[in-house]
Amino acid sequence: MIRAAILGASGYVGGELMRLIAAHPAIEVGVAFGASNAGQAVAAVHPHLALAYPELAFAAWDAAHFQGCDLILAALPHGETQRLADELLAPGVPLVDLGADFRLGSAGEYERWYGEPHARPDLLGRFTYGLPEFFRDEIKGSRLVAAPGCYPTAANLALKPLVDAAAIDGQGIIVDAASGVSGAGRAANAGTHFCGIDGSYRAYGLIRHRHTAEMEMVSGAEVLFTPHLMATSRGILATCYARATGPCDPLAILREAYANEPFVHVGETPPETKWATGSNAAFLSARYDERTNMVVALAAIDNLGKGAAGQMVQCANLMLGLDETAGLSTMGVYP
Ligand SMILES: NC(=O)C1=CN([C@@H]2O[C@H](COP(=O)(O)OP(=O)(O)OC[C@H]3O[C@@H](n4cnc5c(N)ncnc54)[C@H](OP(=O)(O)O)[C@@H]3O)[C@@H](O)[C@H]2O)C=CC1
Ligand SMILES: CC(=O)N[C@@H](CCC(=O)OP(=O)(O)O)C(=O)O
């Protein structure tokens, strides 16, 4: 078995990673870092994992724990992987980072969108962007992968084939996407606790949400992105609007682009977030409107699945030469 070290194991993504790895045929948890809960049983923070990890406890941060690990999976707040970079790279084992630290192409772009200078610009060029549907071969040959998170994954899956086929204008694309509250991480604040979200629906991060950068970098188009928070635990639905370059069949373009993709389903029915819950699946649809000459393209994923932990496992499988789908489900939990 490949032994994985998990950073941020006490977080929502960390918990989902451990849930997936518990059922993975070739990967097991070597060490689960969770400094704030060091010494406590994993089940004290993730009770749903009690049967899967009856004896495992969270470890305090210590790079010595990497000894005997063959894979590092980092699910830390952005900034943390830059800070720990030397220790994470020292073991020389594959690293999948889900934070935003190494996703953008340049230190300038990082500073522009994250509002702080990049601490390790020397390493930026060494990471591959971990969206397998577009960068599979590069991921296979990489030791360092920066996996994208939920909003950019959903938007880019819906948009990139349409931009590449020149079916839509690359200027002025609008992405409205709604996220379940787990997208904001484990710690509640006034905006994310029950009373802040129950029975309500709101936009946030207007004009300058940092995920705009990854949407533009991967799709190659100009994007105006508005995230929304919906009163559910999991799920992302991205609804993308673009001016068509002429009459087109966007559904056919998406079907062809993803015909051989194990985790992407393209269908006529507008997708729902619930279809993807607990899985690594992405459900897409699209339409052309003759009246307005616009295309609308939709993507639904589980923010913790294809938008986070599932994506990390899919990348790790590719990097390790395993079956890409190992340990990952294509089926949501429904109803
Ligand atoms: N939630 C989601 O749907 C998605 C999240 N992401 C990204 O994945 C990463 C993890 O997200 P998520 O699991 O939701 O986050 P959480 O806040 O739920 O968990 C983060 C974990 O990181 C650890 N940590 C280490 N250093 C710090 C620090 N300086 N400040 C706060 N926590 C720290 C904490 O554990 P401890 O203190 O015990 O070390 C904590 O449990 C983030 O970069 C996030 O943006 C990306 C895609 C989707
Ligand atoms: C609902 C919610 O708050 N979502 C988060 C996105 C979390 C995430 O995916 O962050 P990274 O991909 O940058 O790691 C947000 O909008 O900031």
TrEMBL record:
Gene3D superfamilies: Dihydrodipicolinate Reductase, domain 2, NAD(P)-binding Rossmann-like Domain. SMART domains: Semialdhyde_dh. The active site is at 150. Pathway: Amino-acid biosynthesis; L-arginine biosynthesis; N(2)-acetyl-L-ornithine from L-glutamate: step 3/4. Residues 3-142 form the Semialdehyde dehydrogenase NAD-binding domain. InterPro entries: AGPR, AGPR_AS, AGPR_dimerisation_dom, AGPR_type-1, NAD(P)-bd_dom_sf, Semialdehyde_DH_NAD-bd. It comes from the Bacteria. Its main location: cytoplasm. It is found in: Cytoplasm. This is N-acetyl-gamma-glutamyl-phosphate reductase. The gene is argC.
